[in-house]
Description:
2 copies of one chain form a homodimer.
Chain A: E1 2-4, H1 6-14, E2 18-25, E3 28-38, E4 44-48, E5 61-72, E6 77-89, H2 93-102, E7 113-127
Antiparallel strand pairs in A: 1-7, 2-3, 2-5, 3-4, 4-7, 5-6, 6-7
Amino acid sequence: MVEVSRDEALRLLGTVEMGRVAFTEQALPAIRPVNHVVGDDGTIVIRTHTGSTLLGHSLASEVVAYEADRIDPVTRTGWSVVVTGVASRVTAPDDVARYRRLLVPWVNAEMAHVVRIVPELVAGYRLEAAPS
Amino acid sequence: MVEVSRDEALRLLGTVEMGRVAFTEQALPAIRPVNHVVGDDGTIVIRTHTGSTLLGHSLASEVVAYEADRIDPVTRTGWSVVVTGVASRVTAPDDVARYRRLLVPWVNAEMAHVVRIVPELVAGYRLEAAPS
């Protein structure tokens, strides 16, 4: 297991389309798979439906953890990245429109909200083949 | 997006080797990829290292969320399962020995602890192709 730099971790995150967002729901841990885009500034953008418990109940922002990986279960090699940061709604109309174009939801549910996660902590690892 | 039954969700979970555990770390959401086995009783078993913040600080048990999925990014079909339940250390020596055999860690770190997650809430979905 080899640690990678913050820049490399965010680059790896941008090479895949989906990850999982972990957040707190009524004081308990919750996790959802979502698709994402990574902006040039390293910001992670996802979409949620208006009834989502992520940023629900009028929360303006909240800390979330975001994870993506690509691990081959046969060779057991690949990488994993975990980002911890503050999630908040994107509200500027131009940004909302742009991200709605870039980020087509995988499920046929209403996904009206665009959420931006600004990375604070970024931890990335490569799993390399064990020396035999 | 089609909901599946609890039994089907746990069966799907058992068809893959890895998932992500979400838990609370110093009041913030945390998430880690891990490999797992699903027991006959639907219990999810993972291994952690002794310094893990999951069940750290002498916690006897804590609520976690566990997610696994298999989603094809091209066809955008597959499934996702999220389990919420109580995690606790497995301490019975026979069980520890058995799970250590069944569950070989993917990283060359010490993974001395065996942790059992007893599912309370199980939510599973299949993503089916959109009608064209």
